[in-house]
From TrEMBL:
Protein name as it appears in the record: Homoserine kinase
Catalysed conversion reaction: L-homoserine + ATP = O-phospho-L-homoserine + ADP + H(+)
Subcellular location: Cytoplasm
Boundaries of every GHMP kinase C-terminal domain copy: 197-266
Primary gene name: thrB
Length: 292
């Protein structure tokens, strides 16, 4: 049996739609895999009642199939489904890393990314790798069609998760079909700034580079209280604030000294909007870890 802890992740980071991702220090999924003649799945933990155990419909079933590695797979969910914190990706990443180990497939972490992304397609309809890449490799990741670049970083973060559900399919449905050239130019500048900020581990540059005028405004409409929460976080010292992944979680980059205050003000702003929420004070962290 192999046990793997794979972290929650935040995709997009505003300016890097379907490209940027970051591993979060917490929360995480724990997945145990054991060899079997056919794949069976048990799910427990946060939101497990909403997750199908049929291997045809579960993200880890597609991973087991792609690796030709049938197994009994136990998923202990720490990452709430439909949160914007890479819930399905954490399970897919853990399964890919665990089954690779269990069956001695010898694949590199980077080679496991497209395999875990197949699991994402089962849930969201698109095999985007921007959550599975950081969950497998850790740090800040740039997922391109030809591979992944990963950068170690430890930027302090707050992720604030409201008690509402936004499905990735719905959030992808509001993404505009095209963009004006002036918005593209601005977002390219922001994305480049963010990437340099990650390489320098500079919360100011990372936050400055999170602005996105193409995808985020359309998705913000799906999250009650988003604008108020964003303003509150900036007032409390956040260097950048945006929607985490497809939402509804909101992510703020910051200096460590401001993190606790930012978490409190974001929670207050959601409460004022009539929305219960919880906040994780965290930072960019490690990728999937294997325990024998
Ligand atoms: N990049 C994806 C999206 C992440 O924003 O739809 C979904 O978790």
């Amino acid at each position: 049996m192999v046990t793997v802890r794979a972290p929650a992740t935040s995709a997009n980071l505003g300016s890097g739609f379907d490209v940027f991702g970051a591993a979060l220090g917490r929360p995480a999924d724990i997945v145990r895999v054991e060899k079997a003649d056919r794949t069976t799945i048990d799910v427990t933990g946060v939101g497990s009642q909403y997750i199908p155990e049929d291997p045809e419909k579960n993200t880890v079933g597609a991973v087991a199939e792609a690796l030709e590695a049938p197994a009994h797979i136990e998923i202990d969910k720490g990452v709430r489904p439909a949160s914007g914190l890479g819930s399905s990706a954490a399970s897919a990443a853990a399964a890919a890393v665990g089954l690779n180990e269990l069956y001695d497939r010898g694949l590199s972490r980077e080679a496991l990314v497209p395999i875990a992304a197949e699991g994402e397609a089962v849930v969201s309809g698109a095999a985007h790798a921007d959550n599975v890449a950081p969950s497998i490799m850790g740090g800040f990741t740039i997922a391109r069609s030809d591979g992944v670049t990963a950068v170690d970083a430890s930027i302090p973060l707050v992720t604030c998760l409201p008690e509402v559900v936004v499905s990735t399919r719905d959030a992808r449905g509001v993404v505009p079909d095209g963009a004006h050239m002036e918005d593209v130019v601005e977002v390219v500048g922001n994305a480049a700034t963010l990437a340099v900020g990650m390489a320098r581990d500079d919360p100011g540059l990372v936050g400055r580079g999170m602005d996105d005028s193409i995808v985020t405004p359309a998705r913000a409409e799906l999250i009650a209280g988003y604008e108020a929460v964003r303003s509150a976080a900036f007032d409390a010292g956040a260097t950048g604030v945006t929607i985490s992944g497809a939402g509804p979680a909101v992510i703020a980059a910051c200096h460590e000294r401001d993190r606790q205050t930012i978490a409190g003000t974001m929670l207050d702003a959601f409460e004022d909007a009539g929305v219960d929420a919880r906040a994780y004070q965290t930072r960019i962290g490690r990728g999937a870890e294997v325990f024998e």
